[in-house]
Automatic annotation (TrEMBL):
Composition bias type Basic residues, residue spans: 1-18
Main location: nucleus
Tree of life domain: Eukaryota
Region (Disordered): 1-22
Species whose genome carries this gene: Paramecium pentaurelia
Name of protein: Uncharacterized protein
Length: 237
């Protein structure tokens, strides 16, 4: 217990040293970038309002998404990480831990104690992978190291609970994660996969239903044609 408290105290001290520095960095870069863009082009009041809304959204986002607001998103790669990318990111993480005399437990505390998000560690690691967003790198590392991220098979009880909590909370994944030993990303992906499977089943069911209607339609036509033929034969007698 004392060891964990000492580690937490060490992380808090490091966090306090870097927090103000990076908050100022965010504010200055956001202000410079968006103000310069507005001044370069003669925009209508509506367009200026849109830009101001973008700035406000940037400021209100989590630290890793706020950092992505000040980079050129056209150069950022999106989609699933390749195994080569994952191996490289894990290598960068391990090198950082060694250089700064940290261990896996320290990293888990950085992840689980959300107030440490502005730490220099995340920014330094993300800087080594410039073609991926800070947000995606942070979430990848969190999935790998977060002790609360239970991986693997979802049993029927968990799936039933997920349906219940989604109906209760909607898409508030962080709130839902409080009822599971899984991360918000894990829960979000499960729900998206669950919806995909439901939609897929619905489409297949509709196709099958339509196919059955077509079969019945052709059968009915055959019966009608047969009745017409019999009726004609009766009239000819």
């Amino acid at each position: 217990m004392k060891k964990n408290q000492k580690q937490s105290s060490k992380l808090r001290n490091k966090h306090q040293q870097h927090k103000k520095e990076y908050e100022d960095l965010f504010k200055s870069k956001e202000h410079i970038q968006y103000d310069s863009n507005i001044q370069k082009i003669d925009k209508t009041p509506q367009e200026q309002q849109i830009d101001q809304n973008r700035i406000q959204q940037c400021i209100s986002r989590s630290w890793h998404k706020r950092l992505d607001c000040i980079v050129n998103l056209s150069e950022i790669k999106v989609g699933k990480f390749s195994q080569e990318e994952i191996d490289y990111i894990m290598k960068v993480v391990n090198e950082y831990l060694l250089q700064n005399n940290l261990n896996d437990q320290d990293l888990q505390e950085y992840i689980e104690l959300k107030s440490f998000g502005l730490s220099k560690m995340w920014l330094t690691i993300a800087n080594q992978i410039p073609n991926r967003s800070v947000d995606s790198i942070y979430k990848l590392i969190r999935r790998k190291y977060d002790s609360k991220n239970r991986q693997g098979y979802w049993n029927q009880n968990e799936e039933a609970d997920l349906i219940k909590y989604v109906q209760q909370y909607g898409r508030k994944w962080r709130e839902i994660s409080k009822h599971f030993n899984r991360t918000p990303d894990n829960i979000r992906k499960k729900q998206e996969n669950f919806q995909y499977q439901q939609n897929k089943y619905r489409v297949q069911h509709n196709k099958y239903f339509l196919f059955q209607i077509m079969i019945q339609y052709f059968r009915l036509n055959l019966v009608i044609s047969s009745l017409k033929l019999n009726f004609v034969q009766i009239l000819e007698r």
